[in-house]
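Encode chain A's predicted structure.
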Amino acid sequence: MLSPSLLPDPAVPAALLQGALMMGGLIVAIGAQNALVLRQGVMRAHVLPVVLLCTLSDWLLVALGVFGLGALIAAQPLLLEAFRYGGAAFLVAYGWRAARQAWQGSAAGLQLAAGGGSLGGALSTTLALTYLNPHVYLDTVVLVGGVGAQHAGAAQLGFVAGAWLASAAWFALLGSARSARRASCARRPHGGRSTHWSPW
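Encoded structure for chain A:
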């Protein structure tokens, strides 16, 4: 018979599922970061680096939130309010900019919004939309981090792992969604012309 110390902690699977569901519920809302990944998919430009950067950024912010930063921010009411109103202002400004570009309907405007078409531009835009958006900190650091901080030991690590898995799965799905659609179209005959498709 196994010693109780050698048995797996039954709280770990529940914490992992909680982390995945909570992160998944927050991340699926189409915000500035998700819209950028979709745009990169539409243009088929630097999708994999952008997806990796978004995923790693989420992992970092979740870990910071769970292991202390979330509680620190939540304990400062003025700072929390600044994040709330700052996030709202950021989303309004970004939405206005996106609406103007959609109204203009130009491919050049779409490319400019995603960083001018270069890898450096795409990554710098991704960093800006991630770390300059206060709403990101509310979701990942304060909300997800605050719940994860309530767990202890292996269960806390399980919660973080669940949140990380949800983030990685979502951005991978988001980055490949447009490419998968293009692949479906590419398999159809187009007057004898061959089409080429690459997922990234």
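Residues 1-7, 190-199 have pLDDT under 50 and may be disordered.
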